[in-house]
Amino acid sequence: MSLPLKQLEELSLTHWPALNTEFMDGWKLRMANGYTKRANCISTLKSTSKQLHVNIASCEQIYNSVKQPTIFKVTPFSEPQLDETLEKLDYTMLDPSLMLTLDLKQLPHTEPKVKLNETDKLELSLQEHISLRWLEQYCEHSGVDPQYIPTMIDMIAAMPGQVLLASSLLNGETVALAMAVIDQGVVGIYDVITAAPYRNLGLCSHLLWHVLQQCKKQVSLSYLAVLESNTAALSVYSKLGYKEAYHYWYRIKPQLDFDDDVTSL
């Protein structure tokens, strides 16, 4: 299955929903209590009818009113002048990232190997319902503040299609996690994390391979986003068959009158 890249970008925004969205001259102003940039940014997939600086100023007013920083997501589908205009307005570039895609027909047939001791017991868990324990474990291993858990629950409840919460348990301990959103013949992979003491053992590859094998029964294409600087993750995804689809990044205008912390990606 192939999918136009702009449609893929639109689908990824749907799969990772904001809790509140305002529409302004073709742009979507997304808000989710500051949890992840992609749910708290301005999506600029459509060209505007007004001058860019006019709409940018209006966006700043709206985000200032809810005490959140103004963040633009810049993709190949944004207006060509947008990034340059934001830079001139002192917006800082953040998190240069890649969108990767995988034709699931190209998923390796062989299960990735995991470096285990003979006595180790590795189990996999796939949950199709919201799990507070899974979210707590994700926060523990990723460093996300647990205060975001209520927002995470609301976002998962708003996700379309089917959501899978996957875990790898080594000798009863959760050591790797991933989320899959299955919708419209596509599966988006989110929240991939391996517990720090268990990295470089192949656990992430092993977990994702099993998740994608499960998803192959329903879909033929997968996507995920990753920071360009995350070479370890890029190596894992490449071995599974993921290929670069397009680049994107964020532009943020620092605010002086409130905490502008927004969790990554």
Automatic annotation (TrEMBL):
Residues 102-259 form the N-acetyltransferase domain. InterPro entries: Acyl_CoA_acyltransferase, GNAT_dom. GO terms for molecular function: acyltransferase activity, transferring groups other than amino-acyl groups. It comes from the Bacteria. This is N-acetyltransferase domain-containing protein. It comes from Paenibacillus montaniterrae.
